[in-house]
Design goal:
Elements lengths: L1 H4 L6 H24 L14 H20 L4 E5 L5 E3 L1 H11 L3 H27 L4 H14 L5 H12 L7 E5 L1 H27 L20 H21 L3 E3 L8 E2 L1 H10 L3 H27 L4 H17 L2 H14 L6 E3 L1 H42 L9
Antiparallel strand pairs: 1-2, 1-3, 4-5, 4-6
Length: about 400
């Protein structure tokens, strides 16, 4: 009787059935990360310093955000008016009630008042709440791409500091603690989000990719094979012009009619001993945009192994999230509307070059970045499929 219950079918049909079941089991295992709800990201690093360091950074960023909004960013004295405190709430109130620039007020309030708290709340949820890996990854990607926009009002304040340089007692700015705290809060939240994105990728154990050299990514890209090099060339040229040529000029008859470029802004901030702001501007407007274009050009035109291709895509993502020419361009646009009530200025050719660089970079990200991202996902999918066909566990890139 016992032999009947433990009787095992043998023969070709039974072996075929068993192989089919094994294949289905492996396919289910490979597909599981995208379909099943996982444990919180924090639980996957419960024996790491990250389990408390990530929440500590988020709390510190939240605290600095709250304190910064209660403090002025700058104190501005424009002869013959009395000193006036410049802060985010004051700017929003000025745009809404006095100048009737409602869309500008909504823009500043959204990016500098609302979004920082939305981002920190979301990062807390993404760290502690159990989510599907693909949902958590998508959330971290969206927050990472939007984080730099919270620095919009910081760039407006830095332009005011630069304009007041060498204007004597007619136009004076005094940097206050609120500006330091707010910028530190935003940079800390951006860094924490980047670390969380890296930890998420490690927790999901991306498959180990081959190390043999493959043809360059531009092969077989159709119209992109010609368009992407032209976009890269245009992006380099427009970025160089935007960095070198002036974007604003003071037109007030009672002030020195200085013109200011991005390089001039960096130098002026350094001369006025605002070294931290000078480094942030240099990194966000010169170093990172240039690095992004260089890495993207190399990834597009040079053949490399899938493993190195993944590393290049990671570098491109990081450089893209910290390149801030689009935020600075919007700040210049807002300043031409907002700042003209305080300091009469006019746009220069550098502002148009900056606009061109922003547009070309956006088109380049769509044309090249989208295709490269798709190819990386295809390579990882192929690696998982090959590992499943071999009947072993999917090798992890972290192992």
């Amino acid at each position: 009787m016992g032999d009947r219950f433990f009787f095992r079918r043998s023969g070709p049909k039974a072996d075929s059935l068993e192989m089919d079941l094994d294949a289905k089991d492996k396919s289910a295992i490979l597909a599981a990360p995208a379909t099943e709800s996982g444990s919180p990201l924090a639980f996957k690093f419960d024996r790491s310093v990250a389990v408390w360091a990530i929440p500590a950074c988020l709390v510190a960023s939240l605290t600095m955000n709250i304190v910064a909004l209660k403090l002025p960013f700058l104190e501005i004295k424009m002869f013959p008016q009395p000193p006036e405190a410049y802060s985010i709430p004051h700017t929003v109130s000025l745009m809404w009630t006095t100048l009737k620039l409602y869309w500008v007020a909504v823009l500043i309030a959204g990016f500098s008042l609302v979004f920082p708290f939305v981002k920190l709340t979301s990062l807390f949820l993404l760290w502690f709440y159990p989510l599907r890996p693909d949902t958590r990854g998508r959330g971290l990607k969206i927050l990472g791409s939007l984080g730099r926009w919270s620095l919009l009002d910081v760039f407006v304040a830095l332009v005011l500091i630069v304009l007041a340089h060498e204007q004597g007692s007619l136009f004076v700015t005094d940097v206050k603690l609120g500006l330091y705290l707010f910028m530190a809060a935003i940079l800390l939240s951006m860094s924490t989000g980047e670390v969380m994105a890296y930890l998420h990728e490690q927790a999901e154990s991306p498959p180990e990719l081959p190390t043999d050299r493959r043809p360059r990514a531009s092969l077989g890209s159709g119209w992109r094979r010609i368009a992407v090099p032209l976009l890269l060339l245009g992006s380099f040229v427009s970025l160089g012009i935007a960095i070198e040529l002036p974007f604003l000029k003071i037109t007030a008859w009672y002030l020195t009619d200085n013109s200011y470029s991005i390089l001039g802004t960096i130098g002026t901030l350094w001369k006025t001993e605002q070294h931290l702001f000078s480094i942030v501007v240099a990194g966000g407007l010169v170093v990172m945009p240039t690095a992004r274009l260089l890495v993207l050009a190399g990834t597009w035109s040079i053949g490399r192994s899938p493993a190195r291709f993944r590393i290049a895509m990671l570098r491109t993502r990081i450089a893209s999230q910290w390149a801030m020419i689009d935020v600075f361009g919007l700040a210049i646009g807002l300043f031409l509307l907002e700042g003209s009530t305080l300091v009469p200025v006019e746009g220069q050719i550098g502002a148009w070059a900056l606009l061109g660089a922003i547009i070309l970079n956006a088109v380049l990200a769509w044309a090249a970045g989208g295709l490269l991202g798709t190819r990386l996902r295809d390579l990882e999918r192929e690696a998982r499929r090959e590992a499943g066909d071999r009947g072993g566990e999917v090798p992890s890139a972290a192992s």
